[in-house]
Design brief:
6 strands, binds methionine sulfoxide, Beta-Lactamase, alpha+beta, 4 helices
Length: about 160
Amino acid sequence: MFHAHALTGSKAEQYGQLLEQVQAMLAGEHDRVANAANLSALVYHALPQLNWVGFYFFDGHELVVGPFQGKPACVRIALGRGVCGTAAVTRQVQRVEDVMAFDGHIACDADSRSELVVPLYRGDELIGVFDLDSPVPARFTAEDKAGLSAIAQAFVETTR
Ligand code: SME
């Protein structure tokens, strides 16, 4: 059974440790739902100031909520809508310091103030997005973007 250790040191060092934990936890397992569920739980408990961490998967038409930690969320998000749909169509990580100021933001949890969404692509194939919400404005820095993008990539590499 995988056991997560507390993260120590600088933020960069912590993301290095978290990535190692992710790789160890996902090693040898290719089930998308299983890996998304454990990854959501690991990140939600490892990082501070988060109120939602999870996945939306592309079903060939729109984004559909997958495994997550946090309050129940909107189930379906059209491509191009909200922060998640924007990440999916632009293929760019969306780092939103103030969700109230993001045109079209979809409020699933009224506590959310800032958000980071990493698009998940295998080559040109859209798999979905990895979404993190925080009750703290501007919670996500460029370091968080880099660290969480690497973690998302580790997930993509386990999917088939
Ligand atoms: N805020 C997201 C919707 C998903 S929830 O945050 C879990 C968006 O605007 O796409």
